[in-house]
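Design request, tokens follow.
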């Protein structure tokens, strides 16, 4: 090879290496090695040290956490934003889930009765929550919780602050409960156990309902049942009060009336004056939000009352709350029918 060609080859190779290096710099960093060197994680680590966490423990957590791209994809397309009420209902309110709910109720009747008596939350609501969340413990999630929370905390800027906070809550939780941080699995959003509690909810609302000294929502149905009931009680479920009221329009409805907020702020009496009424058996003083639920063809209209709002504290979605309530109604009817038979 001539000197000219050698010089040309050297320049070409050098340029190729330079471009490769630039390309590598532009790509998202490989998280196979964990999150120790991630800029956001470094800031978070310093904050955690200031709160008293051991640096070696934090380094171990970040070194073990792995980015999961499928989590980010799942967060970008939640069912509550893609489906109308009829489509959403058909996923969660179905004969199989009702039958499984009745079976779950029968198998755990003592714990459910005690939870209803202790917390004032109906058995069917507790069962329906667990049914919607995990099919009564059949599908509790396959992601390591540490991976889910680190991925969303450090590589999902839209909600990074929230999930960094949940990662902190998770580390507090595993230390308090004496659990290996690598061992727990859950949903793509880091929710855990039968009732899918995120770490902050676990720390605030999980209970040792069987008195064995542990709050185990992963393997212990009794603790899971008590914890769901306590969650609702702490969010001010009102025993014996209705959840929904049907709507009777006395004049054409205006679009701005509907779906303004999950929290009810207008009384049924005030709605009546505007031309949207509930049956007379409902208290005019009760606060209600007016909801339009889209179907494949047409709409359904409902007043969401206080207890409907409480269900949305579990998942901030009208579709979710409606699915839980409708499933609970069918489970209660099937359970009582079976008892009568």
């Amino acid at each position: 090879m001539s000197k000219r060609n050698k010089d040309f080859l050297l320049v070409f190779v050098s340029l190729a290496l330079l471009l490769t290096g630039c390309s590598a710099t532009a790509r998202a960093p490989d998280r196979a090695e964990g999150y120790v060197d991630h800029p956001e994680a470094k800031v978070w680590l310093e904050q955690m040290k200031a709160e008293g966490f051991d640096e070696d423990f934090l380094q171990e957590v970040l070194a073990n956490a792995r980015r999961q791209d499928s989590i980010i994809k799942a967060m970008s397309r939640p069912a509550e934003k893609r489906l109308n009420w009829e489509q959403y209902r058909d996923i969660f309110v179905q004969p199989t889930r009702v039958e499984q709910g009745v079976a779950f109720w029968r198998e755990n009747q003592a714990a459910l009765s005690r939870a209803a008596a202790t917390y004032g939350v109906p058995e069917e609501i507790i069962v329906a929550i667990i049914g919607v969340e995990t099919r009564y413990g059949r599908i509790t999630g396959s992601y390591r919780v540490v991976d889910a929370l680190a991925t969303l905390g450090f590589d999902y800027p839209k909600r990074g602050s929230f999930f960094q906070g949940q990662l902190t809550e998770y580390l507090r939780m595993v230390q308090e409960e004496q659990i290996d941080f690598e061992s727990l699995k859950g949903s793509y959003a880091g929710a855990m156990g039968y009732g899918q509690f995120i770490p902050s909810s676990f720390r605030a609302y999980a209970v040792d309902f069987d008195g064995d000294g542990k709050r185990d929502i992963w393997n212990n149905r009794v603790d899971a049942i008590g914890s769901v009931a306590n969650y609702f009680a702490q969010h001010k479920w009102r025993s014996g009060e209705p959840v929904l009221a049907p709507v009777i329009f006395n004049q054409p409805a205006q679009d701005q009336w509907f779906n303004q907020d999950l929290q009810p702020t207008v009384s049924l009496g005030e709605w009546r004056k505007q031309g949207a009424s509930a049956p007379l058996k409902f208290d005019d003083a009760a606060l209600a939000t007016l909801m339009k639920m889209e179907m494949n063809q047409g709409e359904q209209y409902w007043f969401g009352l206080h207890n409907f709002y409480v269900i949305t504290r579990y998942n901030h979605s009208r579709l979710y709350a409606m699915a839980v309530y409708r499933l609970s109604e069918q489970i209660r009817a099937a359970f009582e029918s079976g008892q009568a038979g």
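Comment from the thread starter after seeing the answer: thanks! Confidence is low (pLDDT under 50) at residues 1-31.
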